[in-house]
Amino acid sequence: MLATKPLASPMPVQHCDDMSDEKQVPKTDAAGNGAQWDLPDSEICSAAMQLAFDVSPAFVANHCVRSYLFARDLAAAKGLRSGVDYDDELVFLSCILHDLGVTDYGDGDQRFEVDGADAAVHFLRRQGISDDRAITVWQSIALHTSVGLANRFGPEQSVSHLGISFDINGMEKNQLSHGFAARVHAAWPRHDLGYAIAELIAQGTRSNPMKAPPFSFPAHLHAVINGTSIAFLDLVKNSGWGDQPMKNTAT
User: Which residues contact 2 (CB under 8 A, 6 or more apart)?
Assistant: First the structure.
């Protein structure tokens, strides 16, 4: 919905209105590291980073920072200029807030990408972000697991997806500056991110299968880790339309 029409009011997201009851997670050396890495430090970016570290486990928060750093470096390697070809602040906000959907702060009844996008927009609107910028962040977060889609929406969505997916799949390492990945990981350790976040997503779908709609990324993890999922042909069989399997016509 947010991808196609302006935001008229903050999205109704659970757990987001009162931070006084949130369990805070220590930021360790996040603020100092942020300055060393020249992270965007506008008021809204600082608030977003504070939120990410307050409500997320370390492996998620560090992943969000690394996603931005990798996005920035990979974009430069592809000849994209910050402030010219893409809006650096929007990429930072998209990356740093993209996994709110796996935290108690952003948890809801939708797939975690959409829960996270709604939670991020709710937070950013309280910080005074404009509707058009909020929509870009929403799209970047909601589409961050959607290979082949995010890059078609705009430069910020594309650059954000580049960094977020790279921190998971490690593709195009040869595009990074020499030694860059090692320095990033030394400052923002992985804590076995890939396996840890897969288990976290699967915990959410295990307790609420509505968060794993058929054919989605959460549904895939639900099947891999929890051992259950609804396949496409299951839907076809239960549709009531009477469709029959195709006969083997091979000779």
Answer: 11, 117, 121, 134, 135, 138, 139, 142
